[in-house]
Amino acid sequence: GAVVSQHPSWVICKSGTSVKIECRSLDFQATTMFWYRQFPKQSLMLMATSNEGSKATYEQGVEKDKFLINHASLTLSTLTVTSAHPEDSSFYICSARPGTSFGELFFGEGSRLTVL
Amino acid sequence: GEDVEQSLFLSVREGDSSVINCTYTDSSSTYLYWYKQEPGAGLQLLTYIFSNMDMKQDQRLTVLLNKKDKHLSLRIADTQTGDSAIYFCAESPYNFNKFYFGSGTKLNVKP
């Protein structure tokens, strides 16, 4: 099956610093990538949708300036958490949809961010 | 985002059937999905159903869709301990530009 890789899988940073998380589709071209935040009680919250070469579409309530998303190529999207604070600590998951797919998403294994 | 609701936990005995329920609010949902998340792993697609279908069966899995009530269910027959995982329902419109997930149901299968 198609593989999506996220890096880093775990990052700890100090409050006020910025952290970049990468999401790569290893063996397919991803027309669209989605970024989710998974809360402790399991729920997956859609943060934004990104299409290659265009600006990301953010969900209501998600701060564009805090969560910068760049979809520079058909195999790479990045999420940068700027000026991170402890409340940004969470599990961030990306998923990618191949252009040829009817709609199946392939998920990365997630990145756990801990802000001290 | 759209509301997709699931109960958080379900516990069954090995060999029994499991039924996981989901409700959604978006009437424009075109595709509805069930994803499985095993510990330490990413979500993987189990099955999906198109909104003009009522039922879909795939080996031990049966998906039922009640479009009028916006209710989706996943039945796992002869549940095994290897089925223990978190099951997420999800929905997307016809152009796949959004995917909204439920909170996930943690299925615990007792030997």
Stretches of chain A where pLDDT falls below 50 for ≥5 residues? none
Instruction: Say how many strands of chain B there are.
Output: 11
Query: Strand-residue fraction of chain B?
Result: over 45%
Write down the secondary-structure element order of chain A. EEEEEEEEEEE
Rounded mean pLDDT score of chain B = 92
Query: Count of DSSP helices of chain B?
Result: 0
Structural class by sheet pairing and helices of chain B: mainly beta
Name the assembly state. Answer: heterodimer
From the alpha-carbon coordinates, what is the Rg of chain A to the nearest angstrom? Answer: 13 Å
Task: Estimate percent helicity of chain B.
Answer: under 10%
Query: How helical, in percent, are the residues of chain A?
Result: under 10%
Shape of chain B: globular
Q: Tags for this entry?
A:
A: mainly beta; four-stranded antiparallel sheet; 54% strand; globular; B: 111 residues; mainly beta; five-stranded antiparallel sheet
Detailed description of the structure:
The complex is a heterodimer of chains A (116) and B (111). Chain A has 116 residues and is mostly beta strands. Chain A contains no helices and 11 strands. Chain B starts with a strand and ends with a strand. Chains A and B meet through strand 4, strand 5, strand 9 and strand 10 of A and strand 4, strand 5, strand 9 and strand 10 of B.
Structure at a glance:
The complex is a heterodimer of chains A (116) and B (111). With 116 residues, chain A is mainly beta.
Set out the fold topology:
The complex is a heterodimer of chains A (116) and B (111).
Chain A: E1 4-7, E2 10-13, E3 19-25, E4 30-38, E5 44-51, E6 57-58, E7 67-73, E8 76-81, E9 90-98, E10 106-107, E11 111-115
Parallel strand pairs in A: 2-11
Antiparallel strand pairs in A: 1-3, 3-8, 4-5, 4-9, 5-6, 7-8, 9-10, 9-11
Chain B: E1 4-6, E2 9-13, E3 18-24, E4 31-37, E5 43-50, E6 55-58, E7 61-66, E8 71-76, E9 85-92, E10 100-101, E11 105-110
Parallel strand pairs in B: 2-11
Antiparallel strand pairs in B: 1-3, 3-8, 4-5, 4-9, 6-7, 7-8, 9-10, 9-11
